[in-house]
Amino acid sequence: MQANQTIFVVPDMSYNSTLRIVTVEPGGLTATHTDKLRILVNFGQHARELVTSEIALGLLRVLADPARELLTLLERRRVGSPIPMLELLAKSVWKVIPLENSRGRAVVEAGRFCERRNGRGVDTNRNWGVDWGKKEPDYDPNEEFPGTKAFSEPEANLVREAAVLFQPHIWINVHSGMEALFMPFDHKVGAPGGGGAAASNATLAMLAGVNKEVFGGRCVVGPGGKSVGYLAHGTATDYMHGILKVPVSLTWEVFGDESAAYEDCYRMFNPTTREGLEAVVDSWTAAFFALLSRVPDHMGMPRQFWSPQLAAQVAAVRARDGLGLTRPAVLGSWGLAPWMGASLAVVAFFVVLFRRRGRSRATHAAQ
């Protein structure tokens, strides 16, 4: 594994941050990543979500020795088939950021367990340049202060720079506060439409499959702004999708204890027993590989990774385009039946109604 470290100092020289990135190529190091499936995963963006960095270590453990660790994990979790996953892993390169917000993490470790912002009080997941600075009626600066301007913070700049240089096909931003598999958008209700509708439906189908296979369907799945019950402005995932055009841009929420008292942030965002921690790390590490196994069925991925079935479906859709292909037919072509899209929309509607009763700290952390 390769580890890169960068120190970024903001222009006024008053605040800096260090970003460590671990690069893993299970199939062997190459001089260029042009022909590889490129995956960028970010952990520890919010300081109090300590469990996310534990999952980073679990993921890196498997990536470092997939022939042994992946087989053991899949058998233990009863997830997927190892041979296709190992073949895809050999064609992939991963960049893993185990802890984005190291300065905020130091504040939490000093005893302020409810702090989610960085070392100078900015929520780095509100500091990105898509819809930056907009505030909802229940905006709380102690939770969501977006900074003085977009990209005022070194953490956001460093992650953006890493993404620009790497040009990932998949971005996953890992949080805690609930159990959810989110896709764009965060800053408005709904998923990408128009020319991006087919890819959006493919992503939704991918997440629904991971949810069923790994979590038994218990996670919330869908666009973040629609599914969590509130809008988040200036998020990393919306920037990855809208500006950097990352084909699959996701936010995962890995744990939440809704029974925790408001002031008990450690329990709210992190497992409190060894058994609980191991279960969370195990299941969410498996989720990365369940997602990987679905790459060949996603039309937003590079064509060399497409399955023969997807290639045939794409060819059929293009042939029909000249015959006035309707939108429901397109939905079906990407593995998401027309009725499924409507059903998911209804489910998301009721989730929104349920969650709009009020935002707790946990729902603030969901994105």
From TrEMBL:
Give an example GO biological process: proteolysis
Q: Which cofactor does it need?
A: Zn(2+)
One GO term in the molecular function aspect is: zinc ion binding
- Report the Gene3D superfamilies cross-referenced here: Zn peptidases
GO CC aspect terms? extracellular space
Which controlled-vocabulary keywords does the entry list? Membrane, Transmembrane, Transmembrane helix
Fetch the InterPro entries from UniProt: At5g42320_M14_CPD, Peptidase_M14
Which protein family is named in the record? Answer: Belongs to the peptidase M14 family.
- Report what the protein is called: Peptidase M14 domain-containing protein
Provenance organism: Auxenochlorella protothecoides
